[in-house]
């Protein structure tokens, strides 16, 4: 229907036009959305880049998936919406690629691995963050996360999770087995809390 509104050609037989448009929709729909996305993505937008161990930094980036992939270091995936229609974009399967934990996702409590970016999302397209969104999310992600990995698979964001993970590992361990604890982020020596 949007295309019908945007049509500038005079249509003599509206019934035939609509039937033809509906009949051809499955064939032409992909081309329509590809051209719309290509047009929208040609611009630069305001984003926040969030790197492990660092506060978020504002940046301008071309609104293309290729540019987003350069920022996050590989193929991209979109996370769950954050408040105010803000979209986190991170590296696809970052955990499996061995990227270190970065921040806790406010939606599901899971961690976001590696560098990620934040942009706005409206009408099925990426858009600039507003100054208010930038300020809110710079504050929200200002403090780098602190994580502990127990064993080879379990990443914990707080001491309660670590205690539970250690108990589960303890029950599965055999005599003489050991585990490795790996820490990321948190307070540096002499840094105020």
Nutshell version of this structure?
By secondary structure, this protein is an alpha+beta fold. It contains five helices and eleven strands.
Q: Tell me the fraction of residues in β-strands, as a range.
A: 25-35%
Structural class by SSE content = alpha+beta
The averaged pLDDT comes out at 78
Low-confidence stretches: none
End-to-end separation in angstroms reads 56 Å
3D structure, described in words:
By secondary structure, this protein is an alpha+beta fold. The chain folds into three domains: 2-40, no CATH class; 44-140, no CATH class; 146-185, no CATH class. The chain has helices at 2-6, 14-40, 65-72, 131-140, 159-172; strands at 44-50, 57-62, 76-78, 86-91, 101-104, 111-113, 116-122, 125-127, 146-150, 154-156, 181-185. The strands form three sheets. Strands 1, 2, 3, 4, 7 and 8 form a six-stranded antiparallel β-sheet that branches. Strands 10-9-11 form a three-stranded antiparallel β-sheet, covered by helices on one side. A hairpin with a 2-residue loop joins strand 7 and strand 8 (125-127). The model has no long low-confidence stretch (mean pLDDT 78).
What keyword list fits this structure?
single chain; 193 residues; alpha+beta; 3 domains; six-stranded antiparallel sheet; three-stranded antiparallel sheet; 5 helices; 11 strands
């Amino acid at each position: 229907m949007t295309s019908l509104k945007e049509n500038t050609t005079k249509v003599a037989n509206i019934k035939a036009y609509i039937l033809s448009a509906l009949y051809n929709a499955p064939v032409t729909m992909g081309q329509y959305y590809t051209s719309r996305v290509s047009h929208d993505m040609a611009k630069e937008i305001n984003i926040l880049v969030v790197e492990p161990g660092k506060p978020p930094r504002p940046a301008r980036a071309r609104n293309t998936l290729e540019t987003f992939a350069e920022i996050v270091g590989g193929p991209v995936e979109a996370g769950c919406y954050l408040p105010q229609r803000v979209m986190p974009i991170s590296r696809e399967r970052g955990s499996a690629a061995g990227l270190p934990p970065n921040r806790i996702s406010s939606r599901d409590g899971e961690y976001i691995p590696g560098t990620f970016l934040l942009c706005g999302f409206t009408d099925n397209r990426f858009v600039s963050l507003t100054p208010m969104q930038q300020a809110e999310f710079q504050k929200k992600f200002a403090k780098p996360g602190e994580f502990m990995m127990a064993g080879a698979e379990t990443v914990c964001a707080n001491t309660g999770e670590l205690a539970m993970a250690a108990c589960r590992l303890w029950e599965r361990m055999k005599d003489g087995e050991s585990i490795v604890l790996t820490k990321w982020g948190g307070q540096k020596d002499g840094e105020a809390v």
